[in-house]
């Protein structure tokens, strides 16, 4: 819709605008669509992008995917993970094993997830090649006005920032940028056309501060990741597939042969390397994630290192909780919506979302933060403190996977 005037100069006017067409933005758009609420996704890339090879989705994430109506199709693409196997190569060659105590865990291709989220959106819902450079508030209506790379502007009645760790919407909200952690991860796929022969286990091996993870996607495809200390050279390495492979091999050179062979056989095009980013739990506790009718979701709000594998699932939860609050408030205001009343309802919906998400996100980010500290620190005192706090607050280590966002039917 294109409207002139309204205090914001010429330009386009939209109801709900979502900045970022990654996992979080697409999930938010799809959840809204399922409730009959239209939105516009602005994505800076020219097409759907899904870097990082695969993503592990735990039970809480599957509940969200069920809500979105795409879980059944995705279940066909990935085997169910039956347990964990871990080995500390500094101490012994003996594996410890534990079954997955509750629910469902699968590791799915990121491209499958992103495509499934985008597939059911109405045509025109995603506008590719739309890079939001900055956002200003309309002095007359207080609506956010988005300034795009091509010089155009879009005024949004409600705005959701799903634009990841370098979010432009965060700047507009006045929130702190996300922090850098001291670790980075290499990720990729290895394909075994004759079958990989690994059990359907989430396998973890550590030596020193290097952690290797291996998870089957299906009978022939394996997802793996290596986490280790970040070094400034990683900036250069992350732009070159050959360097990523050689650096991965270098990191695990003392690991068992099947592990090194897996990295040697990897699909170079699937490789990625990135430094972890996070928002500290105390920031999530005190910061305001809303300004007027603007809020944030996904990594823009709660980037966390992947040690508990919850960043993506938490982003899916955000989408559903935000949608439930929006749907409820829009129902109250009815079809003939006077502008002021509508804006008030958007504010109430976003406030409900922020309040509902806060403690859930504080707990997830605290658990992830402690796990990261534990992996990164060499100090015995810090390690002991982390373990003590984990025992007090997170004795049931996987309790967070029991959260079911579908219970919030407003
Ligand atoms: C190594 C690693 C492993 C992980 N493993 C797991 C796991 O196993 N399970 C799990 O649940 N989570 C995992 N995560 C976390 C998960 O990947 C993220 O939480 C999730 O991808 C966040 O999605 P997002 O949409 O918020 O952000 P992103 O995926 O970063 O998407 C942001 C989108 O916004 C677009 N964008 C950015 N700025 C602009 C702009 N100004 N204008 C327009 N568009 C813009 C970008 O192009 C991008 O498409 C892992 C993370 C890492 C780093």
Automatic annotation (TrEMBL):
Sections of the chain in a coiled coil: none
PANTHER family on file: FAD/NAD(P)-BINDING OXIDOREDUCTASE FAMILY PROTEIN, MONOOXYGENASE 1
InterPro entries referenced in this protein's UniProt entry, alphabetically: FAD-bd (IPR002938), FAD/NAD-bd_sf (IPR036188), MOase (IPR044560)
Entries under Pfam families matching the protein: FAD_binding_3
Family stated for the protein in its record: Belongs to the 3-hydroxybenzoate 6-hydroxylase family.
SUPFAM superfamilies, alphabetized: FAD/NAD(P)-binding domain (SSF51905)
Keywords in alphabetical order: Monooxygenase, Oxidoreductase
Molecular function in Gene Ontology: FAD binding; monooxygenase activity
Lineage of origin: Eukaryota, Viridiplantae, Streptophyta, Embryophyta, Tracheophyta
Source organism superkingdom: Eukaryota
Name of this protein: Uncharacterized protein
